[in-house]
Amino acid sequence: MNALFHDSEVFVRERPTKPTKKQTEDFYNSKAQEIIYNNWSYSPIIRIIIDLEDLYPFFSSGYELATQIENLSAKYLINTEFIEFLEDLYHDYSQLVNINVIEWVKAIQPMPLWKIGDNIKLTNKLTNSFEYYPDKEFFIIGIDEKEARYIINPDKYFQGGTLFNYELLESCAVILQ
User: Fold this and answer.
1) pLDDT, tens digit, for every residue of 54-108?
2) At a CB cut-off of 8 Å and minimum separation 6, what does 134 contact?
């Protein structure tokens, strides 16, 4: 059967930055079920879900999250395994966004303006928390087509680098000749 329109007409042009409401609800529900399954709490699932929501954005360490969750509505058995579980919340939640980005890339098919080996110069600061300031030069040392990201480094022959979304880097840098 032929599609009436292309996927790119359905997806938004901007890169997804957060999970959908359904993904978020499913995430909290599955994590609460995991807590109950592992006997880390005997409280009602809805109270555990509310507590997990109160922990968001999960930036703290597992130990810090454990001390925070102790003061919330449900009761928990805080042990090493539970702390490790809490430690993984940030990663697990961010994977939801990665799934959305991969689907977005498949639908939109963004293309990089630059290629591996190109020398670029930043024209303004990339982000508030990232310390790459204007007038600093970098090389494109890799391209992650799956998630539409450049890999940059000041050393052209370096084996690793920093990932930046195509659209962010392209808006903050120019290519040098």
Assistant:
1) 999 998 899 999 999 999 999 999 999 999 999 999 999 999 999 999 999 999 9
2) 122, 123, 124, 125
The residue type at 3? A
Q: pTM, whole model, 2 decimals?
A: 0.78
Question: CA-to-CA distance for 112 and 164, rounded, in angstroms?
Answer: 11
What separation, in Å, do the N-terminal and C-terminal C-alpha atoms of the chain show? 48
Length of the chain: 177
Q: Are 127 and 157 contained in the same domain?
A: yes
∠ at Cα 24 (18, 28), nearest 5°?
140
Give yes or no: residues 104 and 160 share one domain: no
Question: What is the domain range of residue 73?
Answer: 21-108
Give me the number of domains the chain comprises: 2
